[in-house]
Amino acid sequence: MNASLRKIVTDVVRDRWLYVIALPGLAFFVLFKYLPMGGVVIAFQDYHPFTGFVGSPWTGLKHFVRLFGDPDFMMLLRNTLLLSLYNIALGFPAPILLALMLNELRRQWFKRSIQTLIYVPHFMSWVVVVSMFFVIFESQDGAFQNLIAAWGFDKFTFMMDDGWFRPMYILQVIWRDTGWGTIIYLAALAGIGPELYEAARMDGASRMRQIWHITLPGIRGTIIILLLLRLSDVLDLSFEHVYVLLNALNRDVGEVFDTYVYRVGLINGQLSYATAVGLFKGAVGLALVTIANGLAKRFGEEGIF
User: In degrees rounded to 5, what are phi and psi of residue 58?
Assistant: First the structure.
């Protein structure tokens, strides 16, 4: 046994209980993430469940040609990218801003109470969230419709208006996930040394100066890593959320790749075509993460690989 292998064995034996604790997580990724990757071969086949991988005929890039030649492809790409960009531009900074505000609270009981309240929406399903927004904004006897009527405006339907699809989507994402997203940032903020703030106060720095020159640089690495991870899902939106918001009147602005795969690929049993669409999404996400990770390292950050 050479020295490097002996060192690996020694480290595993020494940290054996840490590896035991990690086993459930590793098993999850192996069973549900890595093993299913072998199924991407059906994107290059006319897959038939009864004949399996071996008996299904190979078709090369047929399904990808169909996807790129589909008249709805540009509409799907535009809708998916716009929702993702809005999510990154508006939804990604929201937990950072909220974490900064919570970090400024000095009464711990009040801070913990606020944290508990803003965590609750994350545990609601998208069906419940959309239903709540429907009752509040859409119901003709709801509070919002009565309020705009009292102000002299005509009642109108948000959910049925394609111009309101994207704002409602982003508003629901921010309301549901912003509080939960603060957890990582609050943990990063807790790692900043209090002596830095004390020195800044002695030098006469205001609270805004302290946030700009100490707090934000202190969590910059965390922000970049989470942004890189978000870029990997740029074409992977929440299927449940978009699906429950979709209807015949807003499909032109709301249909995304995930709902398209379900409607065209899975309902009609076109498994190979659905897999081809998923493989395209994964390739785009991998390319974006690789490029962004390279740029992050070029500017002196650690990156994710």
Answer: -85, 140
In this predicted model, what pLDDT tens digit does every residue of 147-183 receive, in sequence order? Answer: 888 887 777 777 777 888 999 999 999 999 999 999 9
Q: What is the pTM for the complete model shown?
A: 0.84
The ranges of the chain with pLDDT < 50 are none
Backbone angles phi, psi at 72, to 5 degrees: -90, 0
Residue from 252, 253, 273, 251 nearest 261 by CA: 273
Residue among 242, 270, 282, 276 at smallest CA distance from 258: 242
pLDDT digits (tens, 9 = 90+) for 250-302: 888 989 999 998 888 878 888 899 889 989 988 888 888 888 888 878 877 77
d(Cα 225, Cα 138) in Å, to the nearest integer? 38
